[in-house]
Structure formats: C-alpha cells, structure tokens
Amino acid sequence: MTETIYREPVRVIGGPPPGAAALEAREVAAWFGDHLVLDGVSLEMPAREVTALIGPSGCGKSTFLRILNRMHELVPSASLAGEVLLDGQDIYADGTRAQHARLRIGMVFQKPNPFPAMSIRDNVLAGLKLAGVKCPDKDALVEQSLERAGLWREVRDRLNQPGGALSGGQQQRLCIARSLAVQPNVLLMDEPCSALDPTSTRRIEQTIAEIADEVTIVIVTHNMQQAQRVSDHCAFFLAGENEPGRIVEHGPTEQIFGEPEDVRTYDYVNGRFG
Ligand SMILES: Nc1ncnc2c1ncn2[C@@H]1O[C@H](COP(=O)(O)OP(=O)(O)OP(=O)(O)O)[C@@H](O)[C@H]1O
Q1: Pair 80, 30: CB distance under 8 Å
Q2: % residues pLDDT > 90 (the chain)
Q3: Considering the entire predicted model, what is its pTM?
Q4: Which of 93, 173, 237, 262 is the most buried (most CB within 10 A)?
Q5: Is the distance from the beta carbon of residue 63 to the nearest atom of ligand 1 less than 6 Å?
Q6: Residue 72 near ligand 1, beta carbon < 6 Å
Q7: Mean of per-residue pLDDT scores for the chain
Q8: Angle of helix 198-211 versus helix 138-148 axis, rounded to 10
Q9: Whose C-alpha lies nearest to ligand 1, atom 28?
Q10: ipTM of the complex
C-alpha cells in the first residue's frame, strides 16, 4: 500500500485559526448552586506545552478543566467568575459563543466515548459535522488525524469497521483523532488513561508527546509518574475541609516534583496523602 504523508495540516474550512494557542485563567471561581468549589485560580498554560493539573479527589481539577472550554455552563446549577484568555481573548467576553470556544479548545474524557456503531472513518469526521467545519479532502484528514493520534497503522485497513470494535486504548486514540480532526488550538484531557492498561497508557503518553508541538495540552491526572513523564508544567490543586479548591503551587514539573516550595505539595507528590 502506498503511503501519503500529509506534513502540512490538511485544509479545513470554518475551523479554528491555525496553530497552538496559549490559555490563561485569571481569578477563576466556580459554584454548583451556592456551593463554592473553586476560588482565586489563576494559571498560565503556555502554547505548545503540556500542563498537568494534579491534586486529591474533589479539589476541582475537572471543574477547572471544564471552565477552560465553557463546558461548566452546561451543568444547570453551575456558575463561575473570572476570565479565561485564549491567546489574550476572553472566551467568556460578551458576544463570544460557547460553541466557538469549544471548537478551538477540544476535550478528551476519562472514558473513551467513540460512537460505537459508527465506522472508524466516520468517528474521526464526527466532530467536523457537529462543528459545521468542512473539509474538501476527507480521506487526507482522516489519515492525518489518525496518524497524529498514533492509530493509523493499526486501523488503515479497516476504516469502515465500527469504532466500538477497537480496544479501549485504541478507542481513546480514536477519540483523540476525532478531537484533532477539527484542528483545535488547545486539547484538554481529563484523566485520559484512567480506564486503560499500562501498555495503552504508554501509547497515549507517546501520542501526547508527539502532538504537543502542534496543540497546547492541559491534562488532569492522578498518576504522579504520568504527570512527570508527560508535562512541562504542573499545577497542584487542594481544597481544605469545607473550603473551595485553590492552586497551592504551580511551576515547571521538575520543580514541583524536585524542589516544591510548599510542604503540602511535597507531601502530595510523594504520596503522603490523596
Ligand atoms: N455536577 C455537579 N453538581 C454539584 N457538585 C459538583 C458537580 N460536579 C462536581 N461537583 C463538586 O465540585 C467539587 C469539585 O469536583 P471536581 O470533579 O471538579 O473535582 P476533581 O478534583 O476533578 O475530582 P476527581 O479527581 O475525583 O475527579 C466537588 O466537591 C464535587 O462534589
């Protein structure tokens, strides 16, 4: 079989502007009803780098991640304050559409969620249809997205088979391919390996390393080794008893794991609690 390697991004019409983008949260607070779950969260997530969000269960990491692409507001009781800047533009500014923010800032979830009866090829293209993005050369886009997600070689001869027939790790890479097909500027990942075996986990980590030059990544993980392996920066979240979650400390991953400034960070990354 002849291979076409698509080095330049395949052209799509109506997609995000090209390239990775920086994200910055400023003084973010979040509520469910009148329950304040996050407060005073400010964090810079540089373009083309991987930022890991770490911290014990319930400290607001997933809530923060969902605020970064306007999914938090889909929960009926949810509200928030603060700003989220995508390359300097507040995604919550008046007149900015949530769907536009979600197109530029993609998301991969804990449990792989391909459309099980839909073909592998159509799964990759499903995000385009939902976002109203068009592509004149769909075959090239399918190949490039699967290649970037590290799945092409395993599925290129069975693109018409259902997505549900793949293994869990392959399904997660299919979901990454689906997110990449719309060519987002940022990819958010909420514990993307927690349902996977160690081999699939390493394969996803390899994929993260391969795509990080082209798309900014923010990943929630409970796995400290994973945070160390995949991220350039880490933010440590913590919520006291009856207190909202806050960032205790953030910085280069080497510093957070090697020489943290706060004793709570030291204790957490060394497995003393959480
Ligand atoms: N839909 C919801 N309605 C009400 N409260 C919620 C909702 N989702 C989360 N919460 C609450 O918000 C707080 C933060 O939850 P969140 O899931 O963001 O934490 P987390 O750090 O991601 O936890 P985990 O690591 O267990 O996934 C918790 O107190 C949780 O109970």
Answers
A1: yes
A2: 87
A3: 0.94
A4: 173
A5: yes
A6: no
A7: 94
A8: 120
A9: 58
A10: 0.97
